[in-house]
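Session log. Operator J.P. requested a structure for one protein chain; no other inputs attached. Running the standard single-chain path with token output.
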Amino acid sequence: MSNAKDTIIEVRGLTNKFGSHTVHDSMDLDVKRGEILGIVGASGSGKSVLLRSMLGLHPPTSGQILFGDKDITRLSKKEILALHDKWGVLFQGGALFSGLSVLENVQLGMLENYDLPLPDATKLAINKLKLVGYKQEDIHKNPSELSGGMIKRAALARAIALDPEILFLDEPTAGLDPLSADGFDDLVLELRQHLGTSIVIITHDLDTLVKVCDRVAVIIDKKIIVDTIANFRKHEHPWIQKYFNGNRMRAALSLKENVSAPEGKPDKPKTKES
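Structure written below.
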């Protein structure tokens, strides 16, 4: 078993079945402390089921999910709820409460989990919103007044409101335009740098995989394989080959190389020797 200092979550022998259909078959996965781990797989491979199992929302058929010294699969609902202040979750679509303002959405977890006076919760919530790029004039808006990108940022502020040890992001850039998606990726990197939080991202966005993820976990054939993008590009499995060597992946890798390349002085024009 991995050193507890190196990993924040350990999945061991995870099996999920729905009737006669097996989604995961004795799956193992480590999430390292401080890393950004991307999870990908074909439609129906069980990405969301894995996420729900890790959050204690779906009891697996068998296996262990270790968070520190606790096996999530053996905890009661009350015990799992007690761990939720150590986890931050951004569900697909943001899932903000439509009847609450942006500020109130972020305050909610603070007021429910801690006996904080309202002025203190307000101050903390504003700090979190500023951290994800909110301006003062926007914090009292309702979700119906926000763009898709601003909804995602508000949901992210709510997810980090309690300073979680690990952050789960479910399709965080889905539905965003390219500029908003790129800005959200930058924000994820900034949060990891400033907070040191471990981050698990379920995504179909190849630009996100290339730009922010340290490692990628591929759910394939009811198992999971974890490696770097560079190594996956040499993998022999047909689906992995197609996914990591397709035109869209090559474009994402090319974009990262162009952005990362240091700006140099332009070459001097060549002259013919006389």
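Operator note: The beta strands are 7-18, 21-32, 36-41, 62-67, 70-71, 87-90, 166-170, 198-202, 215-220, 223-227.
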